[in-house]
Design goal:
single chain, flat
């Protein structure tokens, strides 16, 4: 960091003070202590929460909180099952570091409890440890719910109102547990300043050790939410895009890279941008360009889900392209699709740093010049691309290209002719798409000829193929009648050989069509005047 970028020393030293767990959670419920919803979501597992509670019970240190005192507007906050209507206040305490611990304690101690709250916990008196139950389990008499211990009067009431009188051992353990939890003190630093840059630097340095946050999480944390702004952060934007398009991404980390690409900043040099007042406008631009990129990938590039993309680099380039040219011409879209497929087929989109910089640099103010620059960076190739004999592996770019070639045939279920898609539709996770890829016969290391896209068949794919008498359904899997008959009579090698020959033709035609083999690149004649290329 440049010396002139360093914030001024704080005029008021941070105040070091402890908060008892009881006081801390009460302040959260009252709306003074706040975990802003632009910070990262609660990513702890139930095991993490149980370990936190156990550390408090045993008096172990659990780290220091960092709180920023500042004015805050009225807002509704949600911590699991705990809803807080926080009023406007001049002395709100924003949790800068320690949000996971504050959220976990609030949910476990003040939440709806078992079975509603995901982090509902119990203290097992007989075992002397904290546990959680499955949703259908009923708490036994030896289990003390953590939702009863935050208030001593409530805990006593719970002991009195039990169906059966609590044994003395349970009473003693419950009172001791409540005292240890409520009175445990968590050290905290209170920063009182109007200098947002200083708080950002404190936040960065607090997260430079231990379990670091991801870059996109740091970005979300340091951007300031303002009333009525949407999207407010990368997390919210990622969720919104998934609801709208069911594309399986981009995730928050990729969205941050796309944002950097739009800004024209080398993400390999600048770690996390501090955008200040520009943040919301850039997030709106990112939302629009990301939506355009997803629509382009699904409609023009014919890639229905992010997990089927051979490489991820095009997302960055597409974000910058659609940010520069929100309404490109039909010819530009056609050429952009060729660029995407040629780069995938030749490996030009692997994401190497130098290639990424060159592609992003090619996108400036002129639409056709940008496309010329992009097309120049994907080398020409032979139409004989896609080895249908090489071992098929879902994770590789080549196998994803072959999978897309199979999808292009619009595969049908060989039992009833229905379209073959993941059970949950276009928004299915990667594993659902991967599970559609099935072997025909038991041949380890076999290539594409031994794979089809199909839902599960109880009798196995070989029998399903042999039993299918619908040529159209078989053709949707590139299976000829000769191949089917070979399988009927147990000639597996003949089946693979016949289908391999047909797949070479299918994949070759698919590649030629997608990449525009033997097509002329350049503007359409009717667009020459529009682009000023007489």
């Amino acid at each position: 960091m440049n010396e002139r970028d360093l914030p001024e020393p704080l005029r008021r030293r941070p105040e070091a003070r402890p908060f008892s767990v009881e006081d801390l959670v009460r302040r959260v419920i009252d709306g003074q202590i706040r975990v802003p919803d632009f910070q990262r979501g609660l990513k702890w597992t139930a095991k993490d929460v149980l370990e936190l509670l156990d550390s408090i019970y045993r008096g172990f240190p659990i780290g220091t909180l960092l709180l920023w005192q500042r004015p805050a507007e009225a807002e509704k906050l949600l911590y699991g099952s705990v809803e807080v209507d926080a009023p406007a206040r001049s002395d709100a305490l924003m949790v800068v570091d320690g949000q996971q611990r504050v959220r976990a304690l609030t949910q476990a101690l003040a939440g709806a409890g078992h079975p509603t709250e995901p982090f509902a916990a119990f203290f097992d008196v007989s075992a002397g440890r904290f546990v959680r139950l499955h949703k259908r389990d009923r708490p036994g008499p030896h289990l003390i719910p953590l939702t009863e211990v935050l208030d001593s009067a409530r805990l006593i009431g719970w002991l009195i109102e039990r169906e059966a009188p609590a044994p003395e051992a349970v009473k003693t353990a419950a009172i001791q547990l409540g005292k240890r939890i409520r009175e445990y003190e968590i050290p905290a630093y209170l920063v009182v300043t109007d200098d947002e840059d200083a708080v950002r630097q404190i936040f960065r340095r607090a997260n430079d050790t231990g379990r670091k946050m991801q870059e996109h999480e740091v970005f979300d944390a340091i951007q300031r939410r303002r009333a009525g702004q949407s999207p407010a952060n990368l997390r919210e934007l990622a969720a919104s895009l998934e609801v709208r398009y069911s594309f399986g991404g981009p995730d928050e980390a990729t969205l941050l890279q796309m944002l950097q690409a739009i800004r024209g900043v080398d993400a390999t040099k600048e770690r996390v941008p501090e955008l200040g007042e520009q943040a919301h406008a850039l997030l709106v631009t990112l939302e629009r360009s990301a939506a355009a990129a997803i629509s382009f990938l699904r409609r023009e590039a014919k890639i229905p889900h992010r997990s089927l993309m051979p490489y991820q680099l095009p997302l960055l380039v597409l974000a910058r392209f659609f940010a520069r040219f929100p309404a490109p011409s039909p010819r530009s879209i056609e050429l952009l699709a060729r660029w995407l497929w040629r780069g995938a087929l030749t490996g030009a989109h692997t994401g190497a740093t130098i290639a990424t910089r060159r592609m992003l640099a090619a996108i400036e103010e002129d639409e056709f010049a940008a496309l010329e620059g992009l097309m120049a960076q994907v080398p020409w190739f032979s139409a004989d691309v896609g080895d249908v004999v090489a071992p098929f592996a879902w994770q590789t770019a080549g196998s994803k290209i072959l999978t897309l070639a199979l999808l292009d045939l619009e595969p049908r279920d060989l039992r009833d002719g229905s379209p073959v898609t993941p059970a949950t539709g276009g928004g299915a996770p990667e594993s659902s798409w991967q599970r559609l890829v099935r072997k025909v016969v038991d041949r380890p290391g076999a290539g594409l000829a031994n794979h089809v896209l199909h839902r599960p068949c109880r009798q196995g794919m070989a029998r399903a193929i042999a039993a299918c008498n619908a040529p159209v359904w078989l053709a949707s899997h590139a299976i000829s009648e000769d191949a089917r008959r070979a399988l009927m009579f147990g000639r597996e090698d003949d089946f693979l050989q016949i289908r391999s020959a047909l797949l070479r033709e299918v994949v070759g035609a698919f590649v030629a069509r997608r990449a525009g083999v033997d097509e002329i690149d350049g503007p359409a004649p009717e667009e020459l005047l529009e682009w000023g290329l007489e």
